[in-house]
Amino acid sequence: MIPVLAQITVSHYMIVGAVLFVTGILCMATKRNALGVLMGIELVLNGANVNFVAFGSDYLRAQSLGLDGQLIALFVIVLAAGEAAVALAIALNFYNNHTTIDVDKAEDLKG
Amino acid sequence: MDTSLLPVLLGLAVLAPLASFFTLLVIGRWLKPALSGFIATGAIVAALLLSLGSTGIWLAHHYPHASAHHGTEHAVTRPFGAQPAPATRTVAYQPHALSSKSPTPESARAAEPAGSAEEAASPHYTGDYYLLGQFGKLRLTISYYIDSLTLVMFCVVSLISACIHFYSMGYMHEEVTAMTDPEVTLANGELLKRRGRYWLFFTYLSLFCFSMLGLVLAGNLAMVFVFWELVGICSYFLIGFYIERKSASNAANKAFIVNRIGDFGMIIGLMALWSGLGTLAFGDVDANHNGRIERVEQGIFAQVRPTEQQHQLTTPEGMVRLSARDKIAGWAREMTDPTPAKLESVFQKNVAMLRAGGPDGSGTRYGYWLLIIAGVGIFCGCVGKSAQFPLHVWLPDAMEGPTPVSALVHSATMVAAGVYLVGRFYPVFTPEVLLVIAVIGVITLFMAATIAITATDIKRVLAYSTVSQLGYMMLALGLGGWLAGMMHLVTHAFFKSLLFMCSGSVIHAVHTNEMPEMGGLLKKMPYTAYTMLAGCLAISGVSLPFIIGFSGYYSKDMILEQAYSFFGLNPTLAGGLFFTLATGAAAITAFYMFRLWFMTFTGKPRNQHRYDHAHESPKVMYVPLIVLAVFATGVAWKLPFSTLNLQSLLEQARPAGTAATVASPMVGMTWPNEHIAHEDAQFWPIVVPVTLMATGTALGGILLAAAMYGFGPLDPREVRRQFPRAYRFLLNKWWFDELYDWLLVRRLHQIAAVIAAIDRRWIDALIDGLANVTIRFAQAWDFVADQSIVDRLVNWIGQATYSTGLSLRRVQTGSLRQYVLFLAVAAIAAFLIASALI
Fold first, then answer.
1. How far is B832 from chain A (nearest CA, A)?
2. What residues of chain A lie within 8 A of the CB of B809, using their CB?
3. Which domain holds residue B565?
């Protein structure tokens, strides 16, 4: 095994996951385009997925989640696909009604 | 055939009309009218056949062998409560208990003189069908008491009812279809049109027959009372059958209310009997109720006329105990350690003394008054039902019902119930009660007979005649003539139902009740006329003296002979009045009956229009008339080749011990043994003069009627002018209705007015005041509790929720990016809080 690679631990993966997560959150919070918001969501989910996969890896820790981590990651991917489909449909409808996908214009539900 | 079949057959005979009643009640409305008539008639015919069958069984076991003539009995005068003594003289009261040497029951039975075979209790069967309930000692059962009187009554009631059912099928044919009531005018001036009520009429008739048969079969007084009231309610329904007519509904109310007055007395009698005797059963019943007679619970008759006293009337121990309770309590106080057993033995030692009014200084005859109250109370009920003197006013008004109903009410059912009960209950009547019965009877018979003279309504004449004849029955019973009274009940049932149905046939033909509108109908309706003539002859008691006569001759002569024999023992004014008034009324009876017959059937038609429309009734109506005419003529005949006749059959049922000469301890009179009057030895002193007198008065009455109304040497109008006061007095029925109206109805209205005023002024004010107070209180309470506490709490909750909602609304900005920020901040905050806590 390559010595450099042997230095890599769970913490590194978690840093990558955290970066992905925060990037996603910032993307969701700052983008006004609905598609941009969706992309942010994908980033958040995948940040979480990196963590799951890392915790599920036998090479990184003696006591891992095992296959459970990989399976939960698979579920999250499927969920993300479903969520993207629904969200895109909403975006399309929103565009039909408002001729825009700027989420700042979407304040019909304001209390 | 076994006698155990008797209760079964007679029970079925009672139930047959009941079944018909329920059938018609449930589905009668939808049946063809004719069919409802057939159902009811079929039921009563079935009852008749069952009655006849039962009588056959009875005769097979208890054939009446000799007409009652008991040689020695009349010579012995039995003071009340005394042992039979073979003496011929004394009339004075001799309480046996005074004598310390009075024989024990066993020796008395041994020493009993020969010839007291009749002292044996009359053959009867008694028992329970069903136990309704037991309350302490009081057992309420459906029970039966069957003797020859029961059987005779069953045959008479069902036979007459059957005839009336057939007759009704013709008489009520107007009711088959929708009809117009000619006597009811509506507010708009039209006559009332309504649906026919043929089925309803037969429904009521069935219930009526059931009630009467049940009454006759009843084996205890509670059951008698139930059927008694059923008979009353049936007569109410039937008298008020034309309910739309004001007069009919009034008459129905009158009959019902007047009967309630009598029943009130009856309830008092029932209570006196129950509290004194602890049972309401007539005969002895099996006290273990297991079918084996091991222990006998004594019925009323056995307690009042114990076998140990040779069936002489004795104040029952229960009544003595009840009446002397203070004295018994006194004994208990005197004892050092009183136990019930000791007290009982002292009581048993002294019971005879208490009963006879012994030498304790007071002379009180303990319990005797209770016995009198019981007797008078029961008789009160009979006064109401049998329309006796103070309560007779309902019967003539009962003419408002259809004529077959009148025939039924007046002969076999309603009014017969009263006389029957007096006859059934005869053993319990003390001489004092008998005197009351006789006085009421004689007043009734004379008064009603005189009123009948001037009545012009054909049914009203017959109604008063019924009242009068019932008076005869009561007189006979009251003077000790049990057999005479019962005989007259039976013969009267036949000829009176016949007379009523004939009058109904006439009314059916001429459509009026008024005799002055009739006349000359003999040619138009011969069947009716001749059967009615038979009825008139029967009620007048016409005969070839000593040879043969119509049924009324036998029964009425027996009554008069009893009255005459009573006069013989009590040669005073009062004793004589009974006989004189009874004989006088016999003449009047003959007079008004033939006045009726002559006015209706002979002479010239007084109303040509009605005469022209008259016609003989259909066959279904006159055939029953012929049947009844045969019975009215010959029911009392004594056949030469047989000892079986009405008299000997009824004599079998004579209550044990009532055929004795009895002196009253309270009023100075002696009641003659009924057999005295019919003795061979008394043929010349009693039978001959009485028979001749009775025949003479009857013929006199008939001849006078013929002279005035038939062949006309005397003009009734002339007579009327001669005695205007008497005429008006009689025409107004002795002013009884006016008297009662003034004495009772007006007073009642006045009292009611006073009470109404009190009601309005005081009670209403009180209630209004209470209501106002309640409203005020409610208002105050509403302010204190509801408005200031409950309402405020609820309002505060509402407002708090509303303001919370308003403030929370601010964060709902609708900006998606802000929401994400919230999420992130919340997640970080949660993370920080969680890590801080851990």
1. 16
2. 111
3. 455-636+655-723
* Cβ-contact B477, B434 below 8 angstroms: yes
Chain B nearest CA to A31, separation (Å): 8
Domain end position, chosen among B666, B700, B723: B723
Band the pLDDT of B203: cuts 50, 70, 90. Answer: very high
* Residues B713 and B741 grouped into a single domain: no
Tell me how close the Cα of B827 comes to any Cα of chain A, in angstroms. 11
Higher pLDDT, B690 or B664: B690
Distances in whole angstroms, Cα of residue B700 to Cα of each of B287, B380, B544, B645: 58, 35, 15, 30
pLDDT bucket at B287, cuts 50 / 70 / 90: low
Whether residue B669 is found in the same domain as residue B556: yes
Q: Which residue of A has its CA nearest to B823?
A: A25
**Chain A partners of B811 at a C-beta cutoff of 8 Å?**
111
ipTM: 0.78
User: Quick check: helix, strand or coil at residue B512?
Assistant: coil
- Side-chain-facing half-sphere of B90: CA atoms under 13 Å: 14
Closest CA to B301 of B424, B150, B423, B427: B427
Integer Cα distance of B464 and B450 in angstroms:
9
Flag whether A68 is in a domain: yes
Residues of A in contact with B820 (CB under 8 A): 25, 28-29, 37
Question: What is the signed CA dihedral for B40, B41, B43, B45, rounded to 10 degrees?
Answer: 170
Asked if B717 reaches chain A (Cβ–Cβ under 8 Å), the answer is no
Question: What confidence score (pLDDT) does residue B96 get?
Answer: 33
- The Cα–Cα gap between B308 and B671 comes to 22
pLDDT tens-digit profile of B468-482?
A: 999 999 999 998 889
In chain B, the number of structural domains is 3
DSSP string, B757-799: HHIIIIIHHHHHHHHHHHHHHHHHHIIIIIIIIIIHHHHHHHH
> In which domain, by residue range, is A73 found?
33-103
Quick one: closest CA in B to A30, which residue?
A: B817
Q: How far does Cα B387 stand from its chain's mean position?
A: 9
The span from the CA of B145 to the CA of B128, in Å, is: 9
- Kindly list the residues from chain B whose CB atom is less than 8 angstroms away from the CB atom of residue A31: 817
Q: What angle do CA A50, A56, A61 make, to 5 degrees?
A: 105
Q: Does A10 touch chain B (CB under 8 A)?
A: no
Nearest to B57 by CA among B121, B118, B10, B120: B10
The answer to whether residues B631 and B756 belong to one domain is no
Chain B residue numbers touching A109 (CB-CB < 8 A): 812, 814
Average pLDDT, rounded, for chain B: 82
d(CA B821, CA B829): 12
| Chain position carrying tokens 């069919």 | B35
CB of B806 within 8 Å of any CB in chain A? Answer: no
Whether residues B816 and B765 share a domain: the answer is yes
Q: Is residue B303 part of a domain?
A: no
Judge: A25–B815 Cβ closer than 8 Å, yes or no: no
29-88 in chain A: CB under 8 A from chain B:
29-32, 37
User: One-letter amino acid identity for B575?
Assistant: G
Contact B492, B473 (CB under 8 A): yes
pLDDT at B810 over 70: yes
Which of B808, B814, B817 is closest, CB to CB, to A110? Answer: B814
Average pLDDT over residues B75-93: 34
Residue B19 has pLDDT above 90, yes or no: yes
The distance of A37 to chain B (nearest Cα, Å) reads 9
Interacting residues of B399 by C-beta distance below 8 A, sequence separation 6+: B251, B406, B457, B459, B460, B463, B513
CB-based contact B164:B407 (threshold 8 Å): yes
Is 0.80 surpassed by the pTM of this model? no
Q: Which residue in the set A30, A32, A110 is minimally distant from B813, CB to CB? A: A110
Assigned domain for A3 exists: no
